């Protein structure tokens, strides 16, 4: 059943087609659809839209793995500062990591999902999943699932804990604290790695996927048993298996902001972070220099992902968004999608910074399918401007 869903918000002159595309999409969605779309071009906000009963421009949603973009912006800034070096061994910062044959792995390969350390043999408890340090301690002792550096696979729930421990060892501070001080607070971003209680009333609980019978059949045929690499990567083999869709609805996850999946944001916050990464805003220089963006956006792992079992592309901590999701974007675009359907990226060639959120978990997970048409509309308008 569908009904008229009102699109609210504004677009800049020349971006009217983006509003039309968003309205056309939501008109075909169920009556309970709720989502936001925001975009900047070279630091200027040009799209700020939302739709759905109860939604507002400042509503906050669980953005799952879009969190990894914030986490690895911090790593990129520390590399740019000289605090971290990509080709140092991880053990230079974190000696305990070298157990079980992991001693030769570099920070560069860790960021590119090449560690072979997608989980632990027995999984994590719900309490451990909320605590990056607890996960890192367990992972340091874990034998990798493939020889480090020889292949890659999506470290879905743990990559932020691993890179976050490197940040903590190098700086004496958590990744979340560095992000708050250097990124979120200075720009007033509604993109939190640790949601303060005062902002809880703005949070909209994630709703579960509602697949059609045909989609359910596809989900049921996926070879993702709990003891497969995918099952281990998503903690399905734990004594208390993880319900991925419900993670943002756990207050402790929102409060502690695990760096792989615990972020809470609006589309404004997602797009605003990538705009600050890429462009001058309010007299502030871009957070990353062009060379840093280029290095972190350079292909580092391309081909068969051992966890996802499909073709994937990664830069350093970021997805290679133009190859993985949106081939019309410029080379070197960096970003990250989230399991429920969120998407965020920065295209250094067009100057576009993009953010999208939705409340209900999209089929089949990862960037929701509508992102392709919405991001394309933004990109075309930016190029025509």
Automatic annotation (TrEMBL):
Stored Pfam families: Beta-lactamase (PF00144)
SUPFAM superfamilies in the record: beta-lactamase/transpeptidase-like
Beta-lactamase-related domain segment(s): 36-374
The EC number(s) this enzyme carries: 3.1.1.103
Tree of life domain: Bacteria
Keywords linked to the UniProt accession: Hydrolase
GO MF term (any one): hydrolase activity
Protein's UniProt keywords contain GTP-binding: no
This protein's name: Serine hydrolase domain-containing protein
Organism: Streptomyces hyaluromycini
